[in-house]
Design brief:
With 487 residues, the protein is mainly α. The protein contains 19 helices and 2 strands.
Length: 487
């Protein structure tokens, strides 16, 4: 009983400390008009590189990584994080200069400026919103709740924990905007990364640094054809998955777009890449492998059980607080970016161009929260939550990336041609996913991407009679002047 009180006490102390520091830091920051898009969704352009790096890192790193990737209990999953370094470099050197040059609030705003039509911006925003609300929001709170239940052996219905996480995350997103989200991300990230490295050390010490007896296929970084991540997918679709996720996904890119200058944003992204390279691969695979040796193949329960068994009682409370913070920051980051997509790309363009941003964001956020809670039971029966997420993401990721590629590399492309290609690509990948997957799904992502790009250019030429021209100026203007077109 005394130990449980210590755990709970440390948990609330650390949680309160993070909240308190976040409040002080945000209160002292200079602000634009409190109801402006830039202030609420981009922190008034006031995030230093430290907070850009911290927010990017913790927005991505949550229980879906720690629980889901360790749940595979094999080293192969480290490639997701190692290849992410390349994705972050592409964000810093290719996409960020374009976003800053075009003064974008959302990544999809760039599409409107390149294609010269607001409808394509809305279509891609809807796809991002569907992915956030139907896939990522429910899986984040599900894996977080599962971890807490597994770690502390709570005799409580999982949905109770789900609701608590959802409401707490919504509070950050509604009342603090991106500034509060990014600051809390960073401070939480320091604790989470430190504690995660400690778990790695305690895990390998628990097996006396001896990995013998673990099947070779769980230790290798070269995956065979029947593994979750065959080696050859690293040469095809993987780089485009990473480009899509880090460079066009509003939830991630929004943090990098909130710095005062492009140079400051790039510093933050490079720092996030360094963390991804040096720390993250170890913490998302080693504990799962050790858990296999200690407990056998126990799937997504591996990480929570290992942490519960190895951490001293008082430290388990601190770690629980760090995990809770990771869940909350990822969840509220998704909520904030989803609200940005709806408010900036849909509501202001089609309903009311001058809404009360804070109030409208609050209403939409609560709707997203309710939907995500209702969808949690859908994911409870998944064999591997991280693999399921990647496969579902494929339904929209490559079609969306094709729109950015066509829009940035070509001029004189009709937006309707790009939209038609996106719809075709989504249906094509759905066919691959649910009917016929001839080869690994990551290979088929590349097939889908290439097909979408070719389809957009063909439809543009055949249906709309416009000949696309290759441009090497990524910041160029793709808008067609009606007078020029008639001439």
């Amino acid at each position: 009983m005394q130990l449980e009180l210590v755990q709970v006490g440390v948990f609330f102390l650390v949680t309160a400390l993070i909240a308190g520091i976040t409040y002080v830091k945000c209160s002292a920051a200079p602000r634009q008009a409190s109801d402006s898009n830039k202030e609420y969704f981009l922190a008034g352009g006031g995030l230093s590189w430290v907070f850009v790096a911290g927010s990017i890192t913790l927005t991505n790193l949550s229980t879906d990584q720690l629980v889901g990737m360790n749940g595979n209990q094999m080293a192969l999953l480290a490639w997701w994080e190692l290849s992410a370094v390349v994705g972050l470099i592409i964000l810093a050197k290719v996409f960020l200069p374009v976003y800053y040059k075009n003064d974008c609030t959302t990544t999809t705003e760039l599409l409107e400026k390149r294609y010269g039509e607001k409808n394509i911006r809305a279509v891609i925003s809807v796809l991002f919103l569907l992915a956030n609300v139907l896939i990522f929001l429910p899986t984040v709170i599900y894996t977080g709740s599962l971890f807490m239940k597994s770690m502390f052996q709570f005799d409580i219905n999982l949905m109770v924990l789900v609701v608590v996480f959802a409401l707490a995350g919504a509070a950050y997103a509604v009342f603090g905007g991106l500034r509060a989200v990014a600051v809390s991300d960073t401070y939480s990230g320091v604790i989470l990364l430190s504690m995660s490295l400690l778990v790695v050390f305690l895990a390998v010490r628990a097996i006396d640094f001896d990995f013998s007896g673990i099947p070779a296929e769980r230790l290798t970084l070269i995956g065979g054809d029947d593994s979750p991540l065959p080696w050859h997918v690293l040469l095809t679709g993987m780089i485009f998955i990473q480009t899509f996720y880090w460079s066009t996904n509003q939830t991630i890119t929004q943090r990098a777009m909130a710095a005062p200058t492009l140079a400051e944003a790039q510093k933050g992204v490079f720092a996030a890449a360094a963390i991804r390279l040096l720390i993250v691969p170890t913490i998302i695979v080693v504990p799962g492998i050790v858990a296999f040796k200690l407990y056998g193949d126990i799937g997504d329960e591996a990480y929570g059980r290992l942490v519960g068994d190895l951490l001293p009682g008082w430290l388990s409370g601190a770690f629980a607080a760090a995990i809770a913070a990771a869940v909350l920051t990822t969840y509220n980051s998704l909520l904030n970016s989803s609200a940005a997509l709806y408010v900036c790309d849909i509501h202001e363009n089609y309903v009311n161009d001058k809404p009360n941003v804070k109030r409208l964001s609050g209403i939409t956020t609560l709707i997203f929260v309710a939907v995500s809670i209702m969808l949690v039971p859908v994911y409870q029966g998944a064999d591997s939550i991280i693999n399921l997420i990647q496969e579902l993401w494929g339904l929209v990721s490559m079609p969306i990336l094709s729109v950015f590629i066509v829009g940035l590399l070509f001029d004189n492309v009709n937006a309707k041609a790009a939209i038609a290609a996106v719809i075709f690509g989504t249906l094509l990948y759905a066919f691959f996913t649910f009917v016929w997957m001839p080869i690994h799904y990551i290979h088929m992502m590349l097939v889908t991407l290439v097909t979408c790009v070719v389809a957009a250019l063909l439809i543009n030429r055949v249906v709309f009679g416009q000949k696309a021209t290759l441009t090497f100026s990524l910041g160029g203007n793709n808008t067609i002047n009606p007078a020029e077109e008639r001439a």
